[in-house]
Write a structure and sequence with these properties.
Blueprint: E1 42-43, E2 51-52, E3 59-61, H1 62-66, E4 69-75, E5 81-87, E6 90-96, E7 102-105, E8 108-109, H2 116-119, E9 128-131, E10 137-143, E11 146-152, E12 158-165, E13 172-179, E14 183-189, E15 199-204, E16 212-216, E17 227-232, E18 239-245, E19 250-256, E20 264-266, E21 279-285, E22 290-299, E23 302-311, E24 317-323, E25 326-331, E26 337-343, E27 346-352, E28 360-363, E29 376-383, E30 386-392, E31 398-403, E32 411-412
Parallel strand pairs: 1-8
Antiparallel strand pairs: 2-12, 3-7, 4-5, 5-6, 6-7, 9-10, 10-11, 11-12, 13-14, 14-15, 15-16, 17-18, 18-19, 19-20, 21-22, 22-23, 23-24, 25-26, 26-27, 27-28, 29-30, 30-31, 31-32
Length: about 425
């Protein structure tokens, strides 16, 4: 995938909220220590206390009302899903029940403000969503050596806040995942200056009531690199973490089979002569201890997509395909791989039913050529035949598209 066109200030973008599709930061100091008053349309939440939200939700189409930037979307079914980003310097969250055609704002607790228009997304005070189901969501923000985690189990009607003290140097959230509303993982890291980013993995077994630090870079986790992809399998034990080391132009991969307490390095063979830092397009831990990685590399003037399949403790099988300009990639619930490529000015849809060994391509009817100039593009697939696409322009303003026929045709939403 192309490098982001956004300006970064010292800290690189990291990947969060992995759900099997796609892979999702500059920080600025906040010297204010005073508690911010509740904002209009928000519900304050005391630590460990449940409070009902009082905001009035409004329904509107995407184009008429959202006006959100740095948008991320997680569709849970072909009809229901959530979308989050920033409106001005405030975090916003919306939900849809009609496949993304209309959206309803979700009442939120008091959250820290973050002027991403000036500083870019990510970093200190940036709020990130980690979605588990249609009812359970969490929001995460880091400030003053603490992680603040807000959790709802009733789609935003009530929120509970917990505060997690972090080790010295941990300044940003890197990745997170929930499983069945009970198991959860949160990965934090240091600033990433000079390519160094110490990592700290926390785990909960009681829906976030308490968290334990289970792994760090002083033990088994990679120490360098700030672009991190992490995934845990449905068994709650098998896991995969892939970290891009921009300076060395390599990907460090570790795997676990005890829920993240212990990790072991695994060797992946990348081609020699890589001229740009690789990009992790997909990282999945699946049933039966299966593991899957998709990495794009630049060798000379040619780009290659490497799809790697393995199981815990085993070697990786690698399939390779040449690509012109890979824009986004994901896996459907059926296990098919899907990718979008800009090929000679035309949006091209690629599908592999066998783990990257064979690819079928066709024109992506309905997707404009302008997507090739987007700052970022992400794909998600809540069902085997349904795909959603979010494209952010240079100002991080979103355009959404949907396909209900497995990517054959696309329609804009809103």
């Amino acid at each position: 995938m192309r490098p982001s066109t956004l300006v970064r200030f010292g800290i690189a973008t990291v990947v969060v909220g992995l759900s099997g599709c796609g892979i999702d930061s500059p920080s600025h100091a906040d010297t204010s220590t005073a508690k911010r008053p509740p904002l209009e349309g928000q519900a304050s939440v005391a630590p460990g206390v449940r409070l009902a939200s009082r905001a009035t939700a409004q329904v509107a189409t995407l184009t008429s009302s959202l006006r959100a930037i740095d948008v991320h979307m997680r569709m849970l079914t072909a009809h229901t899903g959530v979308l989050w980003g920033y409106r001005g310097n405030h975090f916003v969250l919306y939900e849809t029940a009609d496949g993304g055609h209309t959206w309803k704002s979700v009442p939120l607790p008091t959250l820290p403000a973050d002027d991403i228009s000036a500083y870019g997304p990510g970093g200190a005070h940036d709020v990130t969503a980690v979605i588990d189901s249609a009812a359970m969501w969490s929001l995460v923000s880091v400030s003053h050596q603490e992680a603040h985690v807000w959790i709802t189990k009733d789609a935003g009607r009530h929120w509970r806040e917990t505060t997690l003290p972090l080790p010295t140097g941990a300044v940003q959230f890197a990745a997170g995942q929930w499983m069945a509303g009970r198991l959860g993982w949160m990965l934090f890291e240091s600033g990433g200056y000079d390519g160094v980013a110490a990592k700290y993995l926390y785990r909960t077994e009681n829906s976030g009531d308490s968290w334990q630090l289970v792994a760090t870079s002083t033990g088994d986790l990679p120490h360098n690199g700030v672009r991190t992809a992490m995934s845990f399998a449905p068994n709650g034990k098998t896991g995969l973490m892939a970290v891009v080391d921009d300076l060395e132009k390599k990907v460090d991969v570790v795997e676990t089979n005890d829920g993240g307490a212990h990790w072991q390095p695994t060797s992946i063979n990348l081609p020699s002569g890589i001229t740009q830092p690789p990009s992790v397009e997909l990282a999945l831990a699946g049933p039966g201890e299966t593991l899957q990685l998709a990495v794009e590399v630049q060798v000379g003037s040619a780009s290659q997509l490497l799809v790697m399949n393995s199981s815990y403790g085993s070697s990786w099988d690698v399939a390779e395909i040449g690509v012109d300009n890979l824009e986004a990639m994901c896996a459907s619930p059926a296990g098919d791989l899907a990718a979008l490529e800009d090929k000679s000015g035309q949006q091209t849809w690629m599908v592999s039913p066998d783990g990257g060994q064979t690819w079928y391509t066709q024109a992506a009817a309905g997707l404009p050529a302008s997507i090739a100039t987007a700052a970022s593009v992400s794909l998600s697939s809540p069902s085997p035949n349904t795909f959603f696409l979010v494209a952010l322009d240079a100002r991080l303003a979103p355009t959404l598209y949907e396909s209900s026929d497995a990517g054959d045709t696309w329609q804009p939403l809103g």
